[in-house]
Amino acid sequence: MIADHFRDKWTSPAIGLPITINPFAPVSIVGRDEFEALKKEVLEMKELLKRAKAYDEKNGEPDCEIDEKMDLLRRVAAMVGVNLDDVIRKKEKRE
Fold first, then answer.
1. What is the pLDDT of residues 36-86, one digit of tens each?
2. How does residue 19 score in pLDDT terms, banded at 50, 70 and 90?
3. Cβ atoms within 10 Å of 80's Cβ, excluding its own
4. CB-hemisphere CA count at 13 Å for 88?
5. Which end of the chain is less enclosed by CB atoms within 10 A, N or C?
């Protein structure tokens, strides 16, 4: 649910994060205030993910991460210098 919320929010045409979705989209200049606002959102998301993970572990809930969804969250977090490795599992390589 948390990942869905942020994925939907960050992929909305109104929010405009084309570089995370389409590497061929034109790049727009982002101001310091916009950058810091996005970083704050990412850090809040990370805290929510930590709490959700702790809840799931405590209650024996199965791991429900979807690689594509987590990949988007990782890419947005990386744009603002936030690492999510301690919260969400790394994408497993498939043969």
1. 998 999 999 999 999 988 888 899 888 777 777 888 888 889 989 999 998
2. very low
3. 16
4. 25
5. C
Q: Angle CA(63)–CA(2)–CA(81) in degrees, nearest 5?
A: 95
- Cβ–Cβ under 8 Å, residues 65 and 92: no
What is the DSSP track for 34-70? Answer: HHHHHHHHHHHHHHHHHHHHHHHHHTTPPP---HHHH
**How much is the pTM?**
0.70
Q: 7 near 20, Cβ under 8 Å? A: no
